[in-house]
Amino acid sequence: MKPQKLTIVGGGSTYTLGMINSLIAEKAAFPLSKITFYDIDEQRQASNAKATEILLREAYPEVEEFVYTTDKETAFSDADFFFIQIRTGGLPMRERDEQVPLSYGCVGQETCGAGGMAYGLRSIGDMITLVNDIRHFAPDAWILNYTNPAAIVAEALQREFPHDNRILNICDMPAAIMVSYAQLLGCEIWDLVPEYFGLNHFGWFTKVRNREGVDLTDEIKRIILEEGISAVDPEIADDPSWQATFKNMQTMLKDNPQYLPNTYLQYYLYPEKMVEKEDIANTRARQVINGREKRVFSLNERIIAAGTTANERLHADIHGRYMVRVAASLAYNRGETYLVIVPNDGAIPNIQNDAMVEVPAALTNDGPKRFAVGTIPTFQKALIEGQLGYEKLVVDAWFSGDRQTLVNALTLNRTVVDVPKAQQIVDELLRVNGDYLPQFH
Ligand code: G6P
Ligand code: MN
User: Fold this and answer.
1) Which residue, by CA, sits nearest to atom 14 of ligand 1?
2) What does the record give as the active site (predicted)?
3) Contact (CB, 8 A) for 382 and 356
4) 159: helix, coil or strand?
5) By C-alpha distance, which of 265, 251, 258 is closest to 378?
6) Residue 302, annotated as binding a ligand
7) CATH of the domain at 206
8) Domain that holds residue 169
9) Going by C-beta distance under 8 Å and a sequence separation of 6 or more, which residues neighbour residue 239?
10) What pLDDT does 118 receive?
């Protein structure tokens, strides 16, 4: 197995050190000879990088070269794989995305609803620029993207780079849910084979089998209905907000036991409850700023001061491990099945071909080969089509700079619906995001 060279774009992210732990845990599957960090924020990246240097020396000496830089040519010239995890505007803008819709009584969430629209509009430009710059230096490298809102980013990249079949958008949420299924069943996530369909952050597990082909779906549903389900991946297990979200999966399943829901459906199916529980002064962004962000950067400081990771309990998480295994399957032609975001192209025949859908696909060095899902029921089809209309209009609006298109988008989004509210929220979000969105001036 030829070792790979990896560039992480967004080296300053709060997820970077966790990703390094995942690369260490998966080094047999995805061996690396070089790791590069790229970020526009030199300071945040340097903190992660200095801790990473120590961690690699202690736990991954096979990595011959580790570089961190704010120079695109250095970062992009010599890489087989790119993992992209950027957040345009950072957590402070995430907080605005959450607060503005809430102040109009609508769901305020990072990727769902009006907040997701604003975040999407900010992400599209940076992602298009990044992919163009990466392709300039690394025309054949794999680009794996985690940047949110993945549904909108995937749609925009598909339009801008329709012939580039080495860009793959991924989300860890279905995998994080499967980690919890595995715990309920007393097995490992990697023992489970899912059938799933939907849009990103908007989908359902229709079946979960084990590798022997035994259908475990009813057993999972029974346990969730009787005992509930909790977040168990180490990254989210201690987080009250994530535990509340996982608890809601039981409510969703009770209210509609047909399929196993993605956690994010709570925002679309229970918008009133989701608004009620929010404190506008302490939305999720503020919790992450006071929680994960502080935790990660003080962990870095302790590692750097001690010159060793020996005093710390570091762990891989599903967020990183899923991405790394996806990369390994692509690099070494493993043909393993993962849930990824790809053009529909008939996988769901009663949804338009040019939807970017989240479905299982076999991953080879020729790219993802998605499996046929088949015709889906009217209820899910109609929900998906409304949401898809919203996503497509947001991308249309980014290219055209047309405000009315954004109002139409939010009119379709189940977390807004009401036209006067849509108009007010669009105007407020465009005002707050003015510097990022010159096309709307
Ligand atoms: C899950 C989703 C990601 C999202 C993250 C937010 O992992 O799949 O798309 O960014 O949750 O988590 P946070 O803890 O930052 O609210
Ligand atoms: Mn996600």
Assistant:
1) 288
2) 172, 264
3) no
4) helix
5) 258
6) no
7) 3.90.1820.10
8) 1-441
9) 231, 291
10) 98
Task: List 5's β-bridge partners, or say none.
Answer: 34
State how far the alpha carbon of 363 is from the alpha carbons of 35, 79, 251, 331, 335, in Å: 23, 20, 34, 9, 5
364: pLDDT confidence band, cut at 50, 70 and 90?
very high
Between vectors from CA 310 to CA 237 and to CA 234, what angle results, nearest 5°?
A: 10
Residue range 3-24: average pLDDT?
A: 98
Output the pTM of the full model: 0.98
Residue type, 307: G
Tens of pLDDT, residues 272-330: 999 999 999 999 999 999 999 999 999 999 999 999 999 999 999 999 999 999 999 99
Q: What is the mean pLDDT of the chain?
A: 98
Q: Which of 54, 35, 47, 40 is nearest to 10 (CA)?
A: 40
pLDDT at 423: 98
Lining ligand 1 with CB less than 6 A are 111, 148, 171-173, 284, 288, 319
205-242 pLDDT, tens digit per residue, is 999 999 999 999 999 999 999 999 999 999 999 999 99
What residue type is 429 in one-letter code?
L
- In one-letter notation, the amino acid at residue 18 is G
Residues 159-193 pLDDT 10s:
999 999 999 999 999 999 999 999 999 999 999 99
Write out the residues surrounding ion ligand 2, Cβ under 5 A.
Answer: 171, 173
* 257-277 burial: b if 16+ Cβ within 10 Å, else e: eebbbbbbbbbbbbbeebbee
Among all residues, which ones are annotated catalytic? 172, 264
Report pLDDT for 120: 98
- Rounded to the nearest angstrom, the distance between the alpha carbon of 171 and the centre of ligand 2 is 4
Best of 110, 283, 290 to mutate for ligand 1, by most ligand atoms within 8 A of CB? Answer: 110
Q: Rounded to whole angstroms, what are the CA distances from 370 to 199, 356, 439?
A: 14, 12, 36
What was the pLDDT predicted at 140?
98
4's tokens: 């790979």
Q: For residue 294, report the distance from its CA to the centre of ligand 1, in Å.
A: 17
Cα 172 to middle of ligand 1, angstroms: 8
E strands within 253-293? 260-261
pLDDT tens profile 67-89: 999 999 999 999 999 999 999 99
Q: How many domains does the chain have?
A: 1
Q: What is the pLDDT of residue 433?
A: 98
- CA distances for 283 relative to 103, 113, 115, 274, angstroms: 12, 15, 12, 11
